[in-house]
């Protein structure tokens, strides 16, 4: 019943997205301390508070992150996942989900064009990107697994300056180092500048470094831009570099005949990150690393633990997936996604994805037509980035001081919307662009009226600033 | 209702733990293909099959892995987790779970003795162990984050030959290399030989390598042995090495006044891995990396992404935890554990853990007293390792051929128990010891009668071999 309340609170547009309290207030209000045993009644009361003060990420007005929504099939799948509590490392203890993962990942591989490839679920896109850094390094220098990077030339990786920060985390974690991550310029739309990519490759080579991977992005984090994959594939081919595509966010466009062209050239990549917990609406966590190279994952990641991957089992142990992963125990991340897909079918999913893209185009148009709103870039994915200009700042010369003042508007509106709890939208600066809103359209239940609401609500909150 | 069936099937001792089918049979039987949309009725039927053919990890006769059981509070917590679908990176979108994690992790830190430390949930113990490899490396050589390991002396890590294989995966993934993982001998009980540890440190130093971390284990994977932490701490102190304790499995003994002495010296370690999804019975995934060093996690892992960790937010952003992690989106792994702990209290949890240890001692005694059973090592954690000797092999000279034949007994019994579905117990060889059963007592609902069942069932399945 309690869970039912939480569920209903998600779906009702008139309920609050957030009931904000400052950290210290919340700590004082919630009875979280662990010590004595607690009666069911008291626990239920605390749970009501937990629900009340949690942000409703499934609410149709939660536009804050690259995920959102709450699909009934998917929720059923994730509840069953919790009951069955399966660790997906061997067929022995995970028979159904081993073959289900295989089916699901093959479906994704086929959509990319990696028909004879291999794939695995990872706990999030950052780790999937790190898988790319690791398997590409291993492909080029198989000895690295044994010797480490000590004997290797100074590796480097090229990524767009608009790419995701997980590349930084990965370079540090994998022992290659942040200094060896080379930022490629983006053009004014936010797309990787392919000429600069080639220049940078030549430049680092002339410095004695060895580029080995290019990280292209399909749906950048802020602008939602798709890098020109076909042209990047040409460069990667020319210089013999591994081409990874971080499609954690924008990869789901592959489900749509109308929008999959945004990823033209993806079938020429070596690997891809794709998070169904983002645009496809599966609950966290559902993220996959997919590669065209069939035997690389187990070769690169295996440790052949005798206690787990016994070779004298009575079934076909080639089904055991554990040694493809850098994890040991691995949560079943496939059932919830499979449930949605099985229920909707390809056509249903396509409609959902198309709707998100159409809403973003509709919103971008509204932004362009509405006084006080200004689009930062034309949307490619379903991110809509815009400034809001309060009445007092309109029709003024846009000098440095004006921009500086504008940079304080988004945080102020964000504060007001959080306190009112009517919706949540993120903001950030980008390079020389001062703080602007990054509106994310990801909840599969969003309709155009929600876009109208965003416009009127921002106007309400901000016009008098 | 369907989920209810799955739940009931878990709890009933007379129901099957597994309804085994070979991989290809299962692929042929289950309608998993994704393409067309599916009616709710058909989907429900497929779900019944999914439940039927899934291994019941919550069943009281599932002894196969280092986890098991299904606690009602925890399940409630995980279902609510799925509804709220929170990503724990900022207080902004995860207010409740940010402060809940803080409370929960502080509780765990206090139990270890890292009162002023820091901690974070990770997707499994393997990644927590990798966190240790990374933060210890950063502590010693802060430049590694920028420069990679290129400019560093040849690092190496020492671990017991009985330690977990995630150390191997970590050494490869972090670019240090398997060759630089040094196995320390274990004594005949399976404990790290501290004299050999010191010898190996001196040896690798004389080879020009730089040991920087010792990985001790609290509850080894197969034997469940606790390394002598106090003595290892002495050595680490003497040579200035980071002491990590992999307590993924056996760390939960800290909850028991009777058994926490097994970890004597843990408060002198630099870091610890501890998986509540193992002995504490929280559903997958619940694993934590905990360290005594307060500011190390954010310093080592931060990337300061401007779009997510805005510094001009209106609340105290020191609460944002995302930059402590190598992930970006991070599943809420705390609520389910918090629910159990809040409901049971410390005393309730202690009783549960004590019961598991008592069952293991009871089983070990039965094994010693029962003809045809032979204990491999005396249990320390709740692993009970034993051989079963079929009637036809008893009272024979134990020559090489005899042992070789004995090595085939456990796989054969395992096949029979799997096909009968009455219980599941793992087996493996270890060094020169041929295949033996590794019985894991982890399900908090286990009682001594289940131990009696194990003895009689193995006897039934194996006596005529």
From TrEMBL, chains A, B:
Family matches, as Gene3D superfamilies: 3.90.1150.170, Type I PLP-dependent aspartate aminotransferase-like (Major domain)
For this UniProt entry, which segments traverse the membrane? none
Q: Which UniProt keywords apply?
A: Decarboxylase, Lyase, Pyridoxal phosphate
Q: Name one GO molecular function term.
A: pyridoxal phosphate binding
Q: Which GO terms describe its biological process?
A: carboxylic acid metabolic process
Q: Name one GO cellular component term.
A: cytoplasm
Q: State the needed cofactors, names only.
A: pyridoxal 5'-phosphate
> InterPro entries, per this entry?
PyrdxlP-dep_de-COase, PyrdxlP-dep_Trfase, PyrdxlP-dep_Trfase_major
Q: Name one Pfam family in it.
A: Pyridoxal_deC
* N6-(pyridoxal phosphate)lysine found at: 278
Which family does the record assign? Belongs to the group II decarboxylase family.
Subunit info here reads: Homodimer.
**Name under which the protein is recorded:** Cysteine sulfinic acid decarboxylase-like isoform X2
